[in-house]
Specification:
Number of strands: 9
Oligomer: single chain
Structural class: alpha/beta
Bound molecules: inosinic acid, magnesium ion
Distance between the termini: 18 Å
Shape: globular
Radius of gyration: 16 Å
Strand order of the largest sheet: 4-3-2-5-6-7
Helix content: 10-25%
Amino acid sequence: MHKDCKKILFTEQQIIDRCKELGKQITEDYKDNHNDVLFVGILKGSVPFMAELVKRIDLNLQYDFIAASSYVGTESAGDIKIVKDLDCSVVDRDIVLIEDIIDTGLTIKKLKELLYHKGAHDVKVVALLNKQSRRTCDINADYVGFEIENEFVIGFGLDFQQNYRNLPYVGVLKEECY
Ligand code: IMP
Ligand code: MG
């Protein structure tokens, strides 16, 4: 375990197993869908989770990436800015946004609004982690890997000041590190 990590919450194997379940569920939910689904990874945190998840989805799908600025340190900035937009059109598309963690919910809320504004037909959300107790707006993920308490977590894509994204597990960052 990394020296800055207080404890491991979810091991690599637990995350892989959960991705298999989520992939099965998403496959089932969209198998009779008329259109291909567009999976949109929110950079950068979603990348390891997205890589695990899409392999478990047995559908004709496309994927793309979007980047929204969000956090300075450990607190939410309140508003978001698109720093890297999608390459493809979202008009009339069924979209599944892939997020590493939902905290206040603002990022997901704003991105959903934006995609609908750009003409998306339907937007759902899958998140590896959910901090329900931190929610400040009325929004929820359609698919959640794991519910967690109000602790700052790192690993499997999740960072603190751009570090720790490469850890192969999700762990709690030691308080003395922030
Ligand atoms: P929200 O807009 O408040 O829901 O924030 C979501 C974003 O905040 C995530 O995409 C993460 O980048 C970041 N975030 C929230 N909680 C944590 C955490 O515990 N560890 C690392 N990043 C976090
Ligand atoms: Mg993020």
